[in-house]
């Protein structure tokens, strides 16, 4: 990857990060995907005592349905168990296939739970922090949420991407697609609006022109 492309992608990476400060919560909600380090981050937060309940949400999505035969949440929960999280502290939602469903189906799963949970730490991939926050606030606005992710730099993430079938160029294309969704999804009722600085949108357009368009949605 040449430096101009790297710098454009780094602009998007930095924008997607929210840099929230962790605080204790009622539950940790892990939004599952192809990146198993998200499971590890969620388990670490539980073991550090940030919340007494660890929830994994994810069935099979666009990427993982060609990678795995079992739901993402089942695989992620097994990782947490292997790391020492007690089974009785884990809840699994294994039907969702996108971020909106992650939140909605988790909300439905918890509807009868007493006492009701009010505060959440959402754990997601680093470049999906902002979209996860915007989606959660749209689907479940009455709850308090902060978002975190595996604590990797952009360079570290590209060097350690979690599956051999997902290249650094694939990661950049996914980031480009996520920024398009941050712009377009509020009008569809999927997310709350997020401001996009001019320099971030200019980086997006340059990356699209350079061919990083494989995860864009049709207008």
Automatic annotation (TrEMBL):
A Pfam family matched in the record: DUF218
Gene Ontology, cellular component aspect: plasma membrane
Annotated ranges, domain DUF218: 26-144
InterPro entries: Cell_Envelope_Assoc, DUF218, Rossmann-like_a/b/a_fold
CDD domains: YdcF-like
Signal peptide per UniProt: none
Protein's UniProt name: YdcF family protein
Organism: Spirosoma taeanense
